[in-house]
């Protein structure tokens, strides 16, 4: 096991009720540091965001903030999260996007919605739940079952979190 910040970060995410991820748009995509964290593999295989409420935020200057939102939302969905919303914020380099009152209002609305969904224990969009069900039960779960020995840690994580109850 690699001993780096990814272990600490994923441990803290596992204990949280919600996750808000904000990222700038670099070269039409998510920044390299974010991709490195994702590629460490905790999110999707472990279903790290199972039942957690998420909000994605992207800043951009010219174009492709939507691509960052799309990447984050796909990561959240495939990792088992309840997607609560997103914010795509146009802003200049080295400026604070919260200087703009309209941006502060959008942030407030989205975070209030996130809190409401947590309080009411909302299950989220039905179509997204179906998509996750298919991805997990037809894609990820059979793959892990086939390579059970290699994925003993992942299976233990699923059982601990109540993601699977019976044999994998
Ligand atoms: C290396 C680099 C690449 C960037 N690429 C894009 C881009 O493809 N599209 C865009 O709209 N803005 C791009 N920007 C602008 C940033 O997205 C924008 O300034 C950013 O959201 C500010 O975030 P930061 O101050 O946290 O880096 C880029 C900025 C940098 C430094």
Give a written overview of the molecule.
- There is one protein chain.
- With 168 residues, this protein is an alpha/beta fold.
- Helices cover 51% and strands 14% of the residues.
- The chain has a single domain, classed as 3-Layer(aba) Sandwich (Rossmann fold).
- The radius of gyration is 17 Å and the shape is globular.
- The structure holds flavin mononucleotide (FMN).
- Flavin mononucleotide binds next to strand 2.
Protein topology:
Blueprint: H1 5-15, E1 18-24, H2 32-39, H3 43-46, E2 53-60, H4 65-78, E3 82-90, H5 101-119, H6 126-146, H7 152-160
Parallel strand pairs: 1-2, 2-3
Bound molecules: flavin mononucleotide.
Give the structure's gist in a few sentences:
With 168 residues, the protein is α/β, with parallel strands linked by helices.
Descriptors:
168 residues; alpha/beta; Rossmann fold; three-stranded parallel sheet; binds flavin mononucleotide
